[in-house]
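In this supplementary section we document a worked example of the pipeline. Step one takes a protein sequence of length 248 as its only input; no multiple sequence alignment statistics are reported here. Step two produces a three-dimensional model, which step three serialises into structure tokens for compact storage. The input and output of this example are shown verbatim.
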Amino acid sequence: MRNLRSFTPLHPESLGLKAGDEWQIKFESERKPRFLGWGVTGFTLIEVLISTTIFAVVLVVIYSAFQTGVLSYNKIDSASGVYNPVRVIFNRIESDIKNTFVYNKDDSQFHGTEHGIYFFSIRDSFDKDSNINTNLALIKYELNADKLKRSCLVGIDVLDDNSTHQAQDLLDNLEEFLIEYASRTNDPDNPYQWQKSWPREGDDNQKKNLPLAVRVTMVLKGTEEKPGEQERRISFTKVIELAQSNLK
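The serialised model returned by step three reads:
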């Protein structure tokens, strides 16, 4: 153990100071001063630029995804505004044609051209007490200018030749309304063919029967998506089979 008696006290004179002068020993930290406070380091310019760039890229991606979603929604909404009315009309035509029947054995009274058709059908209606009434109906579809019209005589009015059809506008802005009728052929490789009228002139077999199927095509006038672009034509086709046909 060291002898404390041999310890020589430190005097100011040994450090080159005069007695009575105030002196102190300062301890400096080896750490460099912090800009943002003790224990907190600041960002460099490169780090700030990289962070800003990443944030900007994320914003651009989010905006692009949002913009794509809005455009897709607008296209779907615009398309549904066209498809829904056409779908409703096709369902009406299909219901009318599927309920048709042969009026008598000599003449089915099912007559059609390329742009119009009329036939007898069964039509259900409801009275004020919600009871279903089944009535005989004579239905006619035709293209008038650019409008698809449907007229219907119900009940006893069907038998009155002087009865007038009350036409109802189903769809406008039509460019084409085409109807084709399926008949049998003797060709085993192509047993069916489409014709533009029913019955075929001079064909008693077709006159007495219904076609095997009816194909309806509607072409709507399009609109310009952008100025100077060509108008788009929108076409819809539906095939309606007649299970009650006895055509041979």
